[in-house]
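Notes on consecutive records. When two proteins share a document, each keeps its own sequence and its own token line. Never mix them. Below: protein one.
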Amino acid sequence: MIKITETLSDKKNFVRVDLYSLGERIVAGELTHSPDAASMPFNSDSFDFKMYAL
């Protein structure tokens, strides 16, 4: 699983790789390219307001 994760995340600044072991199979669930599941606040309150107002 580590080798698969390293291959999938190669040359990316950040990526969370969700893998599942199903018996003899390894299945990729998702690749997330944002920390904190993209729920962290933005640095600028005005930008935060604009994003949540959409």
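Protein two starts on the next line and is unrelated to protein one.
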Amino acid sequence: MRDDKNALRLASIDFAIAISDLCDTIKGCSVYKNQIIRSSSSIGANLHEAKYAQSRADFINKLEIALKESSETDYWLELLYRKNTIDVKTYAELKNQSGSIRRKLISSITTAKSNSEQV
């Protein structure tokens, strides 16, 4: 069972796996597949690094990088969709997962920044 503390990290892993599984089914588009696999897996990698941040500023920076990678993943996802490489249902599901992760990242960044100002 997932606890709130690890929900974002686990969601990012599930998302990266879903993207990787999707890419396994796509023929061609190797550059796009490489890019979306890199950006989607980087979300979780940066969250993992944030656990061992050297400072509050470093922690926030890692979360902000994860947020940027989430945005980049959305770009590649839309590109694959608009090339008719993935169907609308798959696109919508993955967009929803990505949006959920992004909202949690934004909330975490906002909280971390607020806590920094209070210290």
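For the record: Residues 88-118 form the longest helix (31 residues).
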